[in-house]
């Protein structure tokens, strides 16, 4: 295994490389994200020196899960997620435009015991603001990003060439969370979890999901009007409202959700429709996508709430609002299935 500094120096044809700071350690001890300063790169050019980010994943190191969910199944899922993220940056990220801003990938290196993902430092590219909670109007930039991203990759499940991302995006979908489902107390949500899952899986219109679209995974410009996304470990196929439901639940208070959900969904779907038409879809086709995903929003919400109830029922996201949305999701699939 080569050191991060040597890898960066080789990948960027740099004269020398300085480690500046550790930005974040990865979940359950799988590695860290580090900022480096690169001098006299033959790849990047100006400015010099240049800052880059290296996500360093150690495949041979794992600690105890902070909530006790440590199993071989969980470990293998996590390892595969880092491989998928490397695939995303290596093979897919360059397809995104400024409207779906992501970090430029400078290289990916793999060995039996490590993965390095070398990428642009978004802080240095003027996306330096991080948020934990948002005001309602501050959500719009992220909803625009999601709408553009979902429009760009609509129909991805119909590709005939090689597909090296998750066949199903998100980290909480039912087939990958059997332990959490078994841990749930008996309820209608647990009883009908398969119906909820099938309603989304059987949707006519699918796209690529970010898969972990919480507010912490978006980097904001200083005026909060532009965003870039990071952390693509669970990027894969699904319906756009899975990202939307997860994002809104991550950044707004229960009161703000209750009072502003209709406005926020209208904004997302308006931007989604505009993007689809701009990409060549007919207005009628765009409307069909909007109608299907709008109807499935409560189902997507119920699906994530099912995960929360099994994973950590005392979690702050287990709110009265969320429970009500989950009930609506169950009612939807029961009506649909007769």
UniProtKB/TrEMBL annotation:
Domain CHK kinase-like: 117-278
InterPro entries noted in UniProt: CHK_kinase-like, EcKL, Kinase-like_dom_sf
Molecular-function GO term, any one: kinase activity
Keywords, alphabetical: Kinase, Transferase
Superkingdom in the source lineage: Bacteria
Pfam families cross-referenced by the UniProt entry: EcKL
Gene3D superfamilies: 3.90.1200.10
Name of the protein in question: Ecdysteroid kinase
Source organism per UniProt: Marinomonas balearica
